[in-house]
Write a structure and sequence with these properties.
With 167 residues, this protein is mostly helical. The chain is built from four helices and no strands.
Length: 167
C-alpha cells in the first residue's frame, strides 16, 4: 500500500511545485511595471527566488541527507530524474523566451483596450502558462520516483526474505 500513497504524495508535490513556480514567474513579470531596482520589484524577485529555492530544497534535501547518513556519500541523481529536470528546464526556457517576445506587445495591447493593470494580467497569464508547461514533466517525474521507490522497496523485501530463509 505504501507505493500508492507515495505515488499520490509525489504527484501532489509535483502539482504544488508547478503552481509555486508559476506563482514566482507570474509575480516577477507582474512586478515589471515598477522601475528596475525599485524596492517592490527587488522584493518581489527576491521572494520569488526564495520561494522556488525553498520548494526545491524541501523536496531534495531530506533525500540527500538520508543518503548521506546511510552511505556516507551522495551519488548522482538517477538518469530519469536528470532527463526530466532537463526537459522541464528546456520547456521553461522556451516559454521564457516566448514571454520576452510578447511582453511589451501584449501589455501594450491590453492597455490600449483599457484593461487596468495590464502588467498584472500578463503576469497572471505567464504564471499559468509556466505552470502548465512544467506540470506534465513534474507529474511524470513523480510517477517515475514512485516506481523507483517501489522497486527499491521490493528488492529490499526480497533480500530480507532471502536472509530469513537462510540463504
Amino acid at each position: 500500500m505504501a507505493p500508492v500513497t507515495s505515488l499520490h504524495a509525489l504527484r501532489a508535490r509535483a502539482l504544488a511545485s508547478s503552481a509555486l513556480e508559476g506563482l514566482a514567474v507570474g509575480a516577477v513579470l507582474a512586478s515589471r511595471a515598477a522601475p528596475p531596482w525599485s524596492r517592490p520589484r527587488v522584493l518581489t524577485a527576491t521572494a520569488a527566488g526564495a520561494l522556488v529555492a525553498v520548494d526545491q530544497l524541501s523536496l531534495e534535501l531530506p533525500a540527500v541527507l538520508r543518503e548521506l547518513g546511510a552511505t556516507g556519500a551522495v551519488g548522482q541523481p538517477p538518469v530519469h530524474e536528470r532527463r526530466a529536470l532537463l526537459h522541464a528546464g528546456t520547456r521553461a526556457l522556451g516559454l521564457g523566451l516566448l514571454l520576452q517576445v510578447f511582453d511589451r506587445p501584449a501589455r501594450a495591447e491590453l492597455a490600449r483596450r483599457g484593461v487596468a493593470h495590464p502588467h498584472r494580467w500578463f503576469g497572471l497569464a505567464a504564471g499559468l502558462a509556466h505552470a502548465a508547461a512544467v506540470a506534465p514533466v513534474y507529474w511524470r517525474l513523480g510517477g517515475e520516483r514512485a516506481a523507483a521507490e517501489a522497486e527499491r522497496d521490493a528488492s529490499i523485501e526480497a533480500e530480507l526474505q532471502a536472509m530469513a530463509a537462510g540463504r
